[in-house]
Structures are given as structure tokens and as C-alpha cells.
Amino acid sequence: MNAPTAALLLTIAASGASVSTNRAAAAPAADDAGIAPFIAHYQADWKGISVGTSDIHLTQGVEPGQYLYTWTITARGIFRIAYHDDLVQQSWLSVVDDHVRPDKYRGKEGSSTVQLDFDWKDMRATGLSETKPVDLKLNEGTQDVMSIQIEVMLDLKRGNLPKTFQIIDKDQLKEFNYAQEGNAKIRTEIGEIDTVIVTSQRAGNNRILRMWFAPSLGFVPVQAERSRDGKVEISMRIKSVDRLVPIKAPPRP
User: Fold this and answer.
1) Mean of the pLDDT values across residues 67-88?
2) For 249, which of 40, 59, 109, 137 could close a Cys bridge (C-beta 3.0–4.6 Å)?
3) What's the angle, vertex CA 162, arms to CA 197 and CA 200, rounded to 5?
């Protein structure tokens, strides 16, 4: 799962958070949670070259407050020769007390797979990363590389973005530092959009991820850039977005 396209999108997803809250209460309904189902389509460029597309799809789950978040990344052009299998990631998650709690994560690219199950009663995450067993202690607010994006969207909507986030990436628990840089109006293929700019950086890493979230779209991300030493390496820009009527996600595997 190391294609240039996937590198940016996985980094965006891995914007994880450690939020200290009590989440024992029942999950609220979708409207109360501030989440609305949507589908968005993006183009990814690597050093100015179009390398692929991605689609993210949020659907409502069987029970109120439950969702399925799916991200499909497809290489294109000559990159399709080397990376002919789509990268598909899915996170089954719940919104509890205005925060995201991942329940299950699945990632697959060809024969490479990652499977994580979150047991919030015993505070453990278990599963397999390729063939390596995973057994990690959970902290309140721990996210997977997909669920974190929904958590950030909710935090921005409420004006309370934490400074640090914890996520499980494959078989490791990682911490990222976050900062809200300000606002900007940007041109996109769906028009001019007012955005909130957020940066993310892992401690000790010289790569910075900068993301533009659109309040008018429920804080759906519309642009992202990963840079190193001030030079943009990979960028992602929105091509289209649609709000969906609430539909039930398929049963959990």
C-alpha cells in the first residue's frame, strides 16, 4: 500500500486524535451528530503529474449514530501498471457524545490486507496487519486511519480541534500534532469555496500535511497538500461532491 496516490490519502486519513471525553452515553442521531452522508471524488497529483483518483463515501449504518466510511483509491496512467489493484479502506464507526468511536477497520490492496477490531469494553484493538498479529491498548479517542477524518470534521464544526491525535496505522499507535492555520477562499472545480486550513505533522517528521475543509459542505475536505522542506510533493483536489439521502450501509463482515 505504498503507491504515491495512497501515500497522500492515507496520510490525510491518518490525522488521528486522542480526545479525553466520557463516551458511555448512547449514540445520537445523524442530525444531532452533525454528520450527513456524502460522496466525494478527487484527483491526486504527484509532483504535478496526475497519478490517480479517489472516492470517499459516507453512508448511514443500521442503527442511529452508526456509519460506514469507504475510501477507494485508483491509480491511473502509467502508475496503473505498477499499482493495478485498487486500495479500498473501510471504517465502521459510531458517533458517541459528539465524537467518533471506530468499531471495525478493513484495508485491502490486492493480497495485502489490514484488519482491526475495536473492543471498547476491554479497551483493546486486535487484528492482523498483513500476517502480523495486532494487539494494542486503546485510549479514549483513539482512531483508525479512516475514522479520524470524520472526527476532525466534527471537531472543526464545533470549533474545538485538539492539538494532538492518536491513531492506529496498521500495527502501530502513532501521534500527530494539529494546528488550525486560518481561513482561505480557494478555487475548485465545484466553484469558489471558503475553507478552514488545518495542518498535521507527526513529531520528528519533516513532512507537513495541509488540508482545506469546507464549512459549507459540512467540513468535507476539498484540497490537501503534503510537503517536505517547503516543497509540495503530493496534492489532492476535489472534483465533485454530493449529499446523499440517508441509506443503510451493508452489514458488517
Assistant:
1) 79
2) 59
3) 45
Chain Cα centroid distance, residue 69 = 8
- Four-point Cα dihedral 49, 82, 69, 19, nearest 10: -80
Taking the CB of residue 11, how many other CB atoms lie within 10 A of it? Answer: 21
pLDDT exceeds cutoff 70 at 10 = no
Buried b (16+ CB within 10 A) or exposed e, 36-52: bbbbbbbbbbbeeeebb
Instruction: Tell me how far apart the alpha carbons of residues 6 and 9 are, in angstroms, rounded to a whole number.
Output: 5
Residue 26: predicted pLDDT: 34
Is there a domain that residue 242 lies in?
A: no
81-115, pLDDT tens digit by residue?
A: 556 678 899 999 999 999 999 999 999 998 999 99
- Structure-derived torsion over alpha carbons of residues 230, 234, 17, 146, reported in degrees to the nearest 10: 180
Q: What is the pLDDT of residue 85?
A: 79
- Structural domain contains residue 231: no
On whether the pTM is more than 0.70, the answer is yes
Query: Cell 478527487 appears where?
Result: 42
Per-residue b/e over 66-95, b at no fewer than 16 CB within 10 Å? Answer: bbbbbbebbbeeebeeebeebbebbbbbbb
Q: With bands split at pLDDT 50, 70 and 90, how would you rate the model's confidence at 250?
A: low
* Residue 34 belongs to domain spanning: 4-178
Of the two residues 120 and 110, the one the predictor is more confident about is 120
Q: For cell 483518483, name the residue.
A: 53
Alpha helices in 120-234 (DSSP H): 147-157
Q: Does 228 fall in a domain?
A: no
Residue 227 within a domain: no
Type and span of the H or E element at 76? none
